[in-house]
Design goal:
The chain has 339 residues and is an alpha/beta fold. It folds into 2 domains: 4-141 and 322-338, Glycogen Phosphorylase B (Rossmann fold), CATH 3.40.50; 157-320, 3-Layer(aba) Sandwich (Rossmann fold). The protein has helices spanning 16-19, 21-32, 62-71, 100-112, 121-129, 166-172, 174-187, 202-214, 229-237, 253-260, 273-277, 289-301, 303-320, 323-338, and strands at residues 4-8, 36-40, 52-56, 75-79, 115-118, 135-137, 157-161, 192-196, 221-222, 239-244, 265-267, 282-283. Strands 2-1-3-4-5-6 form a 6-stranded parallel beta sheet, sandwiched between helices. It has a 6-stranded parallel beta sheet with strand order 9-8-7-10-11-12, with helices on both faces. Helix 2 (21-32) packs across helix 14 (323-338), helix 7 (174-187) packs across helix 12 (289-301) and helix 10 crosses helix 13 (303-320). The longest helix has 18 residues, at 303-320. The radius of gyration is 20 Å and the shape is globular.
Length: 339
Amino acid sequence: MRRKACFFARVKEKSHLKMMQWYKNDIQILKELGFDVKVATRFSEIPFDVDFYFSWWATTSIFPMIMAKIRGKPIIVVAGGSEVVHRVKDLPSGYRDKPFIVQQVIKYCLRHATAVISVSKTAMREVDALGGKNNVLIYNAIDTETYKPALSSQRNIVFTISQLNRQHMLIKRFFTIIKAAKLIIEDYPNIKFVIAGPKSEQEVIDKMNRAISDNGLNKHIVLPGEVYEKDKLYYFSRSLIYLHPTIYETFGLAIAEAMSCGVPVVTSRVAAVPEVVGDCGLYADPDDPKDVADKVKLLLVNDELKKELAEKGRQRIKENFSYEIRRQRIKELLDAILS
């Protein structure tokens, strides 16, 4: 008889489980490992009759944690976001930004899970700081067969992807991108900037549109909204550069996707970003539009450097962050837990 697993992630729409690569990968991995996977996004959907629970995010893992404790079954919690970041002050949506009761929930889940999967060494240190037990490092994965270089002679985009809300506005430094774009357009007027992602907070969109207009960039910056995987791959295929100034990342999945697609990246030397990028990208100060603009211009003017970073970046993702590597590490963890 096939063993049963519950995959839990608290999302508004189940369609997001197919859109978000981190969910899609892990659901597929559990199926490939021979489990009958029951997917739940609400407490009421969490099944009773499974052999173990696999849950994303420390905060909402309290729901399958309750069921796992009642049943006496193992539960794996994935620490993949800023909610576990305890050692950084003033990080939007970080651990210190949470209400006291939510902080206690996070600590409980990290300390009472059968195992915690940390998606980077950076995340692992944060989990350890909060007293997490059985903490294992398993990097996020990129499907390198889907995210691969595409032949295109019409590359004129500097691409960024992120949720367009207050949290990400502060972390991903959207306004640094807008100010840097103005400096870049002065020398490269044919470049288009695309900042894609769900427009989840109208106030943020209004602020961005005002900044775009105030800088005279209405013809140069596009906010297409939420994009599905095929749209994202299209933008990567048209991109000269992936631009991602940031003040914190527990992994940086979009950065890794760009690298896998052979798109050179300009990002920031913070948190887990150097773990992912290594020496295969350019780093800029996320609060200095001129520094960001200078790094982008360096790639625009230097085809040899652009090609070198594109090839090295693709190879780094294949060697360190492939789907196959995550699949094998999860298999090893489950073999140990379920044996």
